[in-house]
Design goal:
The chain is built from three helices and 23 strands. With 453 residues, it is mainly beta. Strands 12, 13, 14, 15, 16, 17, 18, 19, 20, 21, 22 and 23 form a twelve-stranded mixed β-sheet that branches. It has a five-stranded mixed β-sheet with strand order 3-11-10-5-6, with no helix packed on it. It is elongated and about 90 Å long.
């Protein structure tokens, strides 16, 4: 081989074959922007059909209610999201001489705080006429000939499409009314309050005959979405980079006032350090994602900081408070409020990659994984679900704290993802006793979870 003309080598390529002699021989590529191009696949699935029937001793059902919902399975309760209509189909076989006077559909929403009749507060009540014997009452158009007159004959069918109100006005207890958004269906075994929605079809008859009813509960999911995070955090999510901390991205964090960490180590040595907790902004998070945290410990004793900064020693939790008022539980209103407080998840921690620690400072990053079926923040009259991020006393080996809860910062839980890049989880999936215990306590009543869009 002539040393004056050495062979040409390909740079940054793993494809076999000779290198092209000029740039004009390079293949042309088309740049694809996968972040803005819409997906060609339609992710919407067909509605799920739920069938409810009444036979009343007859050989075959004479009333059939079909409901079409967003539930994943027909074995689940019908589930409707905010802005969706309750759609379905009512079928009825009317015999000659039947004394049906009217057919109506009623949607109710209730807060149930006990077993007595007075322990139920109706915050939503919508009635839609389907058919009536009187020609002055509005009717739902029917393709059935037997439903066109003032008396039902034979097989009658009515399509149903009932819009749900997004807000209702209810008394606040102070003598005035206030507008509230409809809360999500709520039912848990260990909580003495529930939120229930029902769809009821009422077949009204004459005074001498009993009415017929067909009722089904259904799940309701409101639409709530966090505001987008800071531009630096969006860039980190988009490019799968580590999150910038409070010093690099001050607009993306809320730093709570520093608190003193005081106590005793091994019953003899007094401990005095400073702790600063930061929570990602905005303070609203979609369920099924994570809640990023950042913690800084400062002190004069390096060994004490080492023990306090062990990830298992830091106790930061998402605390839920369910508050409701049962008017029959007490004659005095100021003592009739009931509260159920429960931790719904705990933070996982690791050393920060954005800030380096030194002999007097420790920086840690963390996140709280939010369950997909976490109930969103809501309020309806004398019922509310609220959340807060709480910093509890450190659980270091041999350490006894002088305080109880060090920090409590209110946050909100939403049902939809924020617009922009999706939130990335940086901690590995781990067994969380809190989440496991909470999952077992929840009653599986309907399909829920964070929205995809």
């Amino acid at each position: 081989m002539d040393a004056s003309s050495p062979p040409r080598y390909r740079r940054f390529s793993s494809r076999p074959g000779p290198a092209p002699s000029s740039g004009s021989e390079l293949p042309a590529y088309t740049r694809r922007n996968t972040l803005t191009q819409p997906l060609a696949v339609d992710l919407r699935r067909e509605p799920t059909e739920h069938i409810f029937q009444v036979a009343d001793g007859k050989s075959k059902p004479w009333i059939t209610l079909k409901v079409y919902s967003s539930a994943k399975s027909s074995r689940s309760l019908p589930t409707f999201f905010e802005k969706e209509n309750i759609t379905g189909r009512l079928e009825l076989d009317a015999e000659r001489g039947d004394s049906i006077q009217a057919i109506t559909a009623t949607v109710t929403g209730r807060i149930i705080t006990g077993a007595n009749i007075d322990d139920s507060f109706v915050f939503l009540s919508q009635t839609q006429p389907i058919w009536a014997k009187s020609p002055d009452t509005p009717r739902v158009p029917s393709p059935s000939e037997g439903a066109s007159s003032n008396k039902l004959i034979g097989h009658c069918v009515w399509p149903l499409s009932i819009p749900l109100a997004r807000t209702v006005n209810v008394p606040t207890g102070a003598g005035d009314t206030r507008s509230f958004r409809l809360p999500e269906t709520f039912l848990e075994r260990n909580t003495r309050v529930s939120v229930q929605y029902d769809l009821t079809i009422v077949i009204s008859r004459g005074k001498l005959r009993a009415d017929n009813r067909i009722t089904t509960a259904f799940g309701y999911v409101p639409s709530s979405r966090p505001d987008p995070p800071s531009m630096l955090r969006q860039l980190a999510y988009q490019q799968f980079l580590p999150l910038p901390g409070p010093s690099s991205d001050p607009e993306g964090w809320k730093t709570v006032r520093p608190v003193a960490v005081r106590g005793t180590m091994f019953k003899t040595h007094r401990v005095d350090a400073k702790c600063t907790l930061s929570i990602s902004k905005p303070l609203c998070y979609a369920r099924g994602t994570v809640l990023p945290c950042f913690l800084t410990l400062e002190g004069r004793e390096s060994q004490v900081l080492d023990m306090l900064s062990v990830p298992s020693s830091i106790v930061v939790s998402l605390r839920r408070r369910v508050r409701f008022y049962n008017k029959t539980s007490s004659s005095r209103q100021d003592v009739a409020w009931n509260e159920t407080v429960e931790d719904m998840g705990s933070a996982v921690w690791w050393p920060s990659s954005d800030n380096r620690s030194d002999s007097t400072t420790r920086h840690l990053e963390g996140e709280i994984r939010l369950a997909k079926d976490l109930r969103p923040t809501s309020e309806m009259g004398h019922f509310s679900i609220s959340y807060a991020v709480v910093l509890c006393p450190f659980n270091a080996v041999g350490f006894t704290s002088d305080s109880t809860v060090l920090i409590s910062e209110p946050v909100q839980i939403a049902t939809m993802h924020a617009k922009g890049p999706r939130t990335n989880a940086y901690s590995p999936p781990a067994y969380d006793p809190l989440s496991q215990r909470n999952d077992e306590a929840r009653a599986p009543t309907y399909d829920s979870g964070a929205f995809i869009s």
